[in-house]
Structure formats: structure tokens, C-alpha cells
Queue: 2 jobs
Job 1
Amino acid sequence: MSSRKAFALRIDAKTLAAMHRWAEFDLRSLNAQIEFVLREALRKSGRMKMDKSDNP
């Protein structure tokens, strides 16, 4: 990713805990896991095309 933007994310505690467990299982930081989930959802819905440079 060439450019990154920071922003605040409001998320309920149960969802945050689940994301944190998933991130630990996948050996990613929580931030990297959230980015991964968002990219995958966008790709699967056809809202964002991926190229080789988009893979972490």
C-alpha cells in the first residue's frame, strides 16, 4: 500500500475481542487483521479490484 490514512474506529468490545483473537491466530497485528478483512470484503463484493501490489 503506497498511502495510508489514520482514522478512529468505534467498535463494540465483543467484536474487537473476536478480531483480536483472529489476528493472534493468523499471526497478524490487530490493525493488519482489520485491513485484511476490509480488503477481502471489498474484493469479494466486487467493489475493489486487487493487483499484486495489494497483497500484504
Job 2
Amino acid sequence: MIEKLHPYVVFLPTEKKDKILSAIFGSKAGVDLLRFSLKQGISKNIYQKELVKQLNYSNKTIIENLKTLTKLGVLNESMEKDEKEGRIIWVKTYQLTNLGKWFALLMAEEKELSEQEKAEILQSLFRTYVKQVKRLAEEIGINKKMLEETFREEMKSPP
């Protein structure tokens, strides 16, 4: 029986690899936070209040995970102005970085993603891969024209 495989690929910053993997997968809260972002849409803002309401963790646990994931570059933190009962308040919001989106997508089922999301993921993956290949080619002195020719050949050939 041939097993269908999903092409999971994550590019990790070399110097933070272990810390990032530990922060996400060393804690169920980190994994649940990423799953939450998948359910609501990976490009939408994440609010601490919503996490506390939806996930079964204390406010302290949520805050610790948000701080750690922000520090490691999995989340971006920003402030958003909100009006409540006639008063203006500032609320912290979080959003997945490109790295964070890759980790969230590790947990996604293909059927959960729209065709547009799949196309964006493929384009992002391809762009990142090409940048890494280009950097490596420059480091070891491979002619980029040779790589361009290989790409053209592969795009012309049948699947």
C-alpha cells in the first residue's frame, strides 16, 4: 500500500532552531495556540482575551507562551486602538510571522486550506527555497545561469 505523504517543510533560523522547536512542541499550550490561529485564519490578529476564552489555560500560561513565541520570531506583537464604553483603550495583538505560519501549517489538514491559501503557501515555499539555493550557490561558486537552466528544463518536462 502506498502511503500518501504531505510535503511538510519548515525553514528554521539556525541559531534559534532548538529554542523554537522546544517552545512550540515542548508545550501543549504552544501547539494549541498555533491550532487556534489556524481555525480563525492564519493571517488574522490573535488576541490574548480570545485565547484565554477559547483555550483551557490560565492567563499566565497564555501570556508566557505569547511572550516566548514573540521573542523567538514566531509571532509579531503590536498595539491596536479600541473603543469600549466611550473610552479608548489599547490592546496588544499578535500575528503569526512567516515562520509562525509555517509551524501552524504543519498542523493543518490539506482539506482545511482554501485553494488560495494552498497557492500562497506554495509560492512562499518556492520563493524561500529559491533564495536559499541562490545563497548556497553563491557561497560555493555555482553559476546561477546553470540553476536557471535546470529550472526551465524542469518546468517544461511533464510531471
